[in-house]
Amino acid sequence: MGKGIFNAGGGMRVKGSDISYDNSKSLHDATNIQDALDEAWDTVLPRIAIYVEAGSTIVVTDNKNTYEHIVETDEPFVQLIPKLGVWTITATKNDNTVSETVNVATLGETYSLRLSYFSFALTVKSSIGAVIDISNSHGESLPKVSIGSDGTAVINVKQADTYTLYALYGDLTTPKKEVVISENGSSLSLNLDFRVIKVVTEPESSVTAVSGGTTLKDTANENGLVLFHLPFEGTWKVTATRNDQMIDAKVEVTEWKTYVLDLAYALVFGVC
């Protein structure tokens, strides 16, 4: 800090390291002006001692001044801070990132900060194609993920906190769930269930689900399956038709879960 060219008068400009310094009347053990200034800055300026894994890239910023370094050892990296205020320190290594803030409020003070990378595997089970919305305790949203063909999605949570999750499927949403994540390197699995009627019938059957004035329609796939995501609870009448055959049944939907309904046509001799 404070390095530069000094005006010595008479139009002369010299380096601070070329100007001798009398340290007999000060506490500074310096032989030139530049060394004296450096030592004075080291005494007056606050600093942050950052403990982080070797090989990390750290960025220290107050959104006006930014310093970036690569930490080469496990010893604390000390950053001199040129002004008081709130500073954000972010460390990155491989795919891991961690960030903390330090309120630098006192000149000459040394603030210690330990940054630990955090990884937690949160597996969410829900309807295929549903989108998972997750936010932390500050209301900040994490990147959304979609449920894959196996009915799951894995979210890599990088900070201990309390998180709120829910799933979206079209215009429908599941109830929100809250999960506290605190243990680094651990994992957890949870379900975000919609109200669903799973119909098992003959392939290519036309299937309807009716409740009140709401009618849902679909065609059974090659495995004879239809999934109806229901907008509300209540009594649903489900009807399957194929050629001249028809069968129906009622389902009382009261919970957030999947109701399985087997609609098998009656066998009639001579009809196939």
* Approximate strand percentage: over 45%
Separation of termini?
90 Å
User: What is the succession of H and E elements?
Assistant: EEHEEEEEEEEEEEEEEEEEEEEEE
Which radius of gyration do the C-alpha atoms yield?
Answer: 33 Å
Mean pLDDT figure: 87
Low-confidence region ranges:
1-9
Shape by Cα distribution: rod-shaped
Task: Note the quaternary state here.
Answer: single chain
Continuous helix count = 1
Describe the sheet with the most strands: 5 strands, antiparallel
Give the helix proportion (percent range).
under 10%
Structural class: mainly beta
Q: Could you give the count of β-strands?
A: 24
Secondary structure topology:
Layout: E1 5-9, E2 12-15, H1 33-44, E3 47-51, E4 57-61, E5 66-70, E6 77-80, E7 85-93, E8 96-104, E9 110-114, E10 120-125, E11 131-135, E12 145-146, E13 152-157, E14 161-169, E15 172-173, E16 177-181, E17 187-191, E18 196-200, E19 206-211, E20 214-219, E21 225-229, E22 234-242, E23 245-253, E24 258-262
Parallel strand pairs: 3-9, 10-17, 18-24
Antiparallel strand pairs: 1-2, 3-6, 4-5, 4-7, 7-8, 10-13, 11-12, 11-14, 14-15, 14-16, 18-21, 19-20, 19-22, 22-23
